[in-house]
Amino acid sequence: MADEIVFAVLTISDTCSQDAGQDSSGPRLVKLICDAFQNVHIITAILPDEREQISDKLRELIAQKSPSVSAIITTGGTGFAPRDVTPEATKILLDKECPQLAQYIAQASLQKTHFAALTRGVCGIAGSTLILNFPGSEKAVSECFEVVRELFPHALQLIGNELPLVRRVHAELQGSNDIAPTSGHICPHKTGKGDDSDRNSPFPMIPIVQALEIIFQTVQQQRAVAQLLNDFLSPVNIPPFRASIKDGYAMKSTGFSGTKKVLGYIAAGDEVCFYIPFLGVLRF
């Protein structure tokens, strides 16, 4: 994939086309893209709810070659109002519709509000450009982008016919990735599974006063103090393996650079036995 990825953000609104200061969804979408990906170039435009103007602008962006536009996201004009014509202006240009992607966005939106049933956005591919219709509200734009953010890298690789990256991702999804470490390390001590329970104590929380009482009842204070005054050495190295003094993070080499989501953590010697998405990282 090219070093620079070109996105286009189109705000479709009669009101915003007359006063750009009224547009909050477009700038919000630009910020979301910049936060998610590095090395991006974003083209922006504001258009009225006119089918021909929307189609002409989409056609212009699809045909652009220097640089070519990888993805176009529209915001607005997807509702039931008479002048909401963004889906119609988009459909006539599509070579392939992506109904499952549109359904995925709709299902996620319906979990937020039942009013999401009143949007008609479509998704599809025109030439080598992915086109997505988002609703017009700033809140809806944020929610919809979050749904598809993780899918962008692989979707653009597929559209761009970047076969080595595509095959690698498919192999990882099928659990047949032939990339393996040349040597391994298994710690002599028991390690956890990397889930939240590994850092949660199995013992109940008790007041400090009660804890001190238990300590003083168990420990012979005078004898303990005398022993602490003597120098002593541990018979083994602690920890019993080479370890970093700081947490580290690992991500997929096939993913985009940019803001990442920490999915969890694993201890030294643990095996990663689940799929790591493009925008996810693990803490070590």
UniProtKB/TrEMBL annotation:
GO molecular function: molybdopterin molybdotransferase activity
Organism: Bactrocera latifrons (Malaysian fruit fly)
Pfam families in the cross-refs: MoCF_biosynth (PF00994)
GO BP of this protein: Mo-molybdopterin cofactor biosynthetic process
Region Disordered, annotated ranges: 182-201
Enzyme Commission designation: 2.10.1.1
Domain annotation MoaB/Mog: ranges: 8-155
Keywords: Molybdenum cofactor biosynthesis
Protein name, per record: molybdopterin molybdotransferase
Keyword Chaperone (UniProt): no
Pathway info: Cofactor biosynthesis; molybdopterin biosynthesis
